[in-house]
Amino acid sequence: xxxxxxxxxxxxxxxxxxxxxxxxxxxxxxxxxxxxxxxxxxxxxxxxxxxxxxxxxxxxxxxxxxxxxxxxxxxxxxxxxxxxxxxxxxxxxxxxxxxxxxxxxxxxxxxxxxxxxxxxxxxxxxxxxxxxxxxxxxxxxxxxxxxxxxxxxxxxxxxxxxxxxxxxxxxxxxxxxxxxxxxxxxxxxxxxxxxxxxxxxxxxxxxxxxxxxxxxxxxxxxxxxxxxxxxxxxxxxxxxxxxxxxxxxxxxxxxxxxxxxxxxxxxxxxxxxxxxxxxxxxxxxxxxxxxxxxxxxxxxxxxxxxxxxxxxxxxxxxxxxxxxxxxxxxxxxxxxxxxxxxxxxxxxxxxxxxxxxxxxxxxxxxxxxxxxxxxxxxxxxxxxxxxxxxxxxxxxxxxxxxxxxxxxxxxxxxxxxxxxxxxxxxxxxxxxxxxxxxxxxxxxxxxxxxxxxxxxxxxxxxxxxxxxxxxxxx
Length: 474
Hints:
Elements: H1 5-14, H2 32-43, H3 48-57, H4 62-91, H5 95-103, H6 105-138, H7 153-171, H8 174-184, H9 188-199, H10 208-219, H11 233-242, H12 254-257, H13 269-293, H14 301-309, H15 311-339, H16 345-360, H17 364-367, H18 369-392, H19 403-407, H20 413-433, H21 442-473
């Protein structure tokens, strides 16, 4: 009996193997081009129309922006290339399964649940940004960059449609997500660039010589908008480096780079960092400054693009949000699959996508994106330090790696104490020093997590060995 349409789709999805609980086999590794397109597509995102304007709204100076983005994006590229990609290629495992071998199923379940929630929130921001493009295209009310609540039921309906389509693409796995990104990644940077160039005359820039004075006086003026904190060089640099820290030094992108033929493929991240996070943030900052100069004190991402590039800008915002949401929903599906290994990944990915769609109805996620990313970094990166130490250093230190797998334990107390201690230390520093930027506290958490994990493991593993030695002597 021939399969119906729904049955055929289900059978196709059921046969997709993403190697969630095993190493990616040699025959399934991907070429550099797959990562170049996917990384560029993910980081040339709809949220660039949110982050670029943040530097304008928070009063960063022009010199701070250009120099801070240069240093920060170099550090981010090196973090993917020297830390994340090598361990991903060495293990060929997702961060979720590797951590399960180290920490035990009970503890990794907590991490997976937290990660899935954070991925959902991140994906919801992308869906919300894309929806703002549809709103502008159809003449619907759209929330601005500082709005917290949905503007009406029509907005919610547009979010629902876009989120559903994005979720379906993500359910088809790495191959489909990668192909989708490769189709759209090449032309999106051109939209950002041409949009910014087209907008410059609105700021009085008619020649190359006019740009830098206008940049200092009309775009990145060094004066924050009312109600916003002041950003300087260190804010810009740290943000550029650590806004994706949970992915690189936090190692969640092991899920992506485990498919890389070589560790050097981590250099593909440079396409995302310098085309997406450098050029696109600068371009969207220019577009935001034009919108502010025209009297719109709270523009939406779609409006920012439409004012300068018209329909092409709206399409760019829509697709840029899409190419970022797809891999984010895919990662979240892998995290949930680690919690419920008996269930098919595609089903869990669809649930994640629908959850992200519900969250996307609330513009507060977009307006507080910088704060959310700071929390994501604080919670996520200590786990990367723990996994890195376990894989590379434990045998050299005379400690047992993959302790939960070796002992059959479901809960590795050393991981729990190191993770909790790192988060507490980072947050404590944030509160004690009265820092105005959460990202400043994320990096210390990485070092605290690594140090605590080694220290506690030495103590606990020696205690475990002592009774065994006494039994042997007896």
